Amino acid sequence: MGPDSPAKPTPAPDQEENSSSPTTALLSFDTDAYSSNPSHKTSILFISLTLITCIALSAAFAFAFLFFSAASSSAGVDSTARALTKLKRPVVILISSDGFRFGYQFKTSTPNIDRLIANGTEAERGLIPVFPTLTFPNHYSIVTGLYPAHHGIINNYFLDPVTGDAFTMANHDSKWWLGEPLWETVTNQGLGAATVFWVGAEVKKGSWSCPVNLCHHYNQSVPFEERVDMILQYFDLPSEEIPVFMTLYFEDPDHQGHKVGPDDPQVTEAVARIDSMLGKLISGLEKRGVFEDVNIILVGDHGMVGTCDKKLIFIEDLAPWIVIPDSWVQSRTPLLAIRPPPDISLSEIVSKMNEGLQSGKVKNGNRLKMYVKEELPSRLHYSASDRIPPVIGLVEEGFKVEMKNSKRQECGGAHGYDNSVFSMRTIFIGHGPQFARGRKVPSFENVQIYNLVTSILNIKPAPNNGSASFPQSILLPSS
Ligand SMILES: *[C@@H]1O[C@H](CO)[C@@H](O)[C@H](O)[C@H]1NC(C)=O
Ligand SMILES: *[C@@H]1O[C@H](CO)[C@@H](O)[C@H](O)[C@H]1NC(C)=O
Ligand SMILES: *[C@@H]1O[C@H](CO)[C@@H](O)[C@H](O)[C@H]1NC(C)=O
Ligand SMILES: [Zn+2]
């Protein structure tokens, strides 16, 4: 669990809320004392109070001066957004590097990421994913600003509780995809969006028809270099035709992280390769004279944790307390999601499972805790959808759930755990005219990014779970 609450947006460090309140309190006390009793004693009191107030005010001003000069020097020279030199309007490129755990940037030399950090704004201790910390729920939260319960993609795979239809990661039927993703918000307001892959981008919704040349169909085999070139080509269009919002997606280093765990040299190599792709993007934008005009937002969807050392929990071990048939289990690990037939008591399932898990007789049983979904910690926001199965298990970082002991090779990496676990954090870096150079901000949840993008583009956001004031805490004010 990190130092900052993942549920509410933390204000930026240079927003001082407390420095003015003592002054306000002193002034109101002063006014009351003067008006209630105008005697001689009161005038002495009044003079002393005035003096105290003056001293306090000077101290407050001195403090504020020191504070703001310190804040502005740490944030570089800009106090307002920098003017565009070549582009006609603000443009955002939203980039995701899948499974880029916070801290991977220290594994190896990453000159391009370092450059974005040095001249941009970084979440100093990383970006907090939403629960469950899986690829589809998180990518879609980033572009809708909604928790999975509200955008509908509650897992990478799930069943519709009414029809029994299965959602899979290749499904583009709009009935599954709720909320309003950024490409739709952008096109609603008469502007252009382009997606070089993103979760949900191929779904036709409202004004977004997934137009050819703008909405690229997901193809894992397209080399990363080509994806970067696809983005760069948009900047060769006539100025008024350049999409204002673009997405760019890389499967790495998630792919390697799963296979060999986060500490393997293969992950280090994958990180270096992502960095070189960012280098290709930066130099392409520089060549076109637009690098300093474009807002680049670099994020990941979640982190990664090693799962070796037989950190396993077997559901069959619970048989003396309760037998859980395979058919009840809709998702197993790290998110254990159970939908029993309707006539079975949910609280009884939960209490029997927990009794077994806590008995000391089930291997690693104390690493898994079962909940009726409404009783999950509210910070997880994981109950307000019928698609979420009614019984959910929270498993500790690095542990996995299996139905039975199968002696399967278990060593590798996983994600999907509680979003307060530090290893599930990913990166946030913003670079461009509206981001202060060299600024660090506290960690925040990825549902804030939707409002951040609409604020940069100066368009009207759809209702979402980010806070309306968040963009002001992180962006430079417009000049
Ligand atoms: C940061 O931006 C300044 C101003 O454009 C530039 O001179 C400097 O080289 C940049 N630093 C890095 C590390 O790119
Ligand atoms: C996917 O991309 C590869 C590499 O560019 C290409 O050869 C292949 O035809 C593409 N597949 C589809 C279905 O478009
Ligand atoms: C999230 O946003 C949805 C849609 O606006 C809203 O119905 C829901 O109450 C919000 N939930 C939270 C926790 O903010
Ligand atoms: Zn993954």
From TrEMBL:
Residues 1-12 have a biased composition (Pro residues). Residues 1-22 are annotated as: Disordered. The chain crosses the membrane at residues 44-68. GO terms for molecular function: hydrolase activity. InterPro entries: Alkaline_phosphatase_core_sf, Phosphodiest/P_Trfase. The lineage of its organism: Eukaryota, Viridiplantae, Streptophyta, Embryophyta, Tracheophyta. The keyword Membrane applies. This is Uncharacterized protein. Gene3D superfamilies: 3.30.1360.180, Alkaline Phosphatase, subunit A. It holds the Pfam family Phosphodiest. Keywords: Membrane, Transmembrane, Transmembrane helix. SUPFAM superfamilies: Alkaline phosphatase-like (SSF53649).
